[in-house]
# Entry
Amino acid sequence: MADAASRLTTLAEELLGEPLPVRLRAWDGSEAGPAGGPVLVVRDRRALRRMIWKPGELGLARAWVAGELDVEGDLYALLDGLSGLLWERGEETRSLLDSVRDPKLRAAARALLRLAGPFPPPKPPAEEMRGRSGNRHSKRRDKQAISHHYDVGNDFYELVLGPSMVYSCAYWTEDGTLEDAQRDKLDLIARKLNLQEGDRLLDVGCGWGSMAIHAAREYGARVVGVTLSREQAAYARKRIADEGLTDLIEIRVQDYRDVDDGPYDAISSIGMAEHVGAVKYREYADTLYGLLKPGGRLLNHQISRRPEPDEEAYEIDAFIDAYVFPDGELSPMGSTLTTLEDAGFEVRDVEAIREHYALTLRRWVANLEADWDRAVRLTSPGRARIWRLYMAASAVSFERNRIGVNQFLAVKTPVSGVSGTALRPRVWNEKTG
# Structure
């Protein structure tokens, strides 16, 4: 099959109605497209069969995870170049082959089918989430989703996240390290919560225990951390024992909806609300409100998306849902704020730190790429490829303002109206007390 790259490029451009923005290399060694930039490599024509059966993001993801697609050169530049096709065309791309009406496009589609080789398509890669049971965001199904994402080995997360073991957006200065930025983020949250010695802190979705350790060690808080991941809990408990903080910190494998030992002085929820789901977000806000004492503070650190013209048309990202965060959903910033207020909270501050997450993700990708062979040994080639694509694509999404991340400081203000917040509230820029 001579010059598959030229044939594939021509067919793709006829179907898409615009030039491909990247160079393409096919399985026969042929190349086509603009030179001088990153190259999208189609290593096996099975990738085409996947994309024909699942047009759009899921078909591409399956081919990437299986190793049938690859990139030579700058992955970020390629994703940025493809962003208009992958993300901004929306349903137009996903239903492309289903909606072809023009005879010329139908002919191009038939030629693409011939180029793709024998059908049916290959089975999805083993890393794809399958067999979910129960209603979406039920306790049972949430536990399955969390296990799929987090129970892939603590050694793998150490490799990617570094010694801080903080899996959320860091808080950067111009010349800081990843460890500096993660410590600064934890301390920023502690200061926003106005933690004092002896305060009871509930850390919802506590991960590997980093926030709990920081709050206990630096502020003398008494912390309960909850997670649905047994691997996370075991790791956190060992860290806490090594720090000599077992008298101040308790780590539970528990759904936040089952916590019943309030009231707490403060609650931190860092990168957890994305798992809650739109239909359960009011329940989440009500639960946390009920667990706080009057005057208690909530710090909700959450990824957001841009609002849709028709919110009913919002769909969970296919790649993320199948391979990374099953059932994960993002809400617009305004929706989160409204839900917190509807639950009774007084929202005192919102800080948008979108660019900080792009910087964080690029450091995580660098960690993964620097120790690639070990990452593959710790998980699988497919799993390592998932994480490289997921984190790089997410960095580009933050940089292009497709998604953001925000810290909401909310208070369970008592009927007296005394919130306990300073007149100039951003005193957390300097540690006090």
Remarks:
- The longest strand covers residues 292-305.
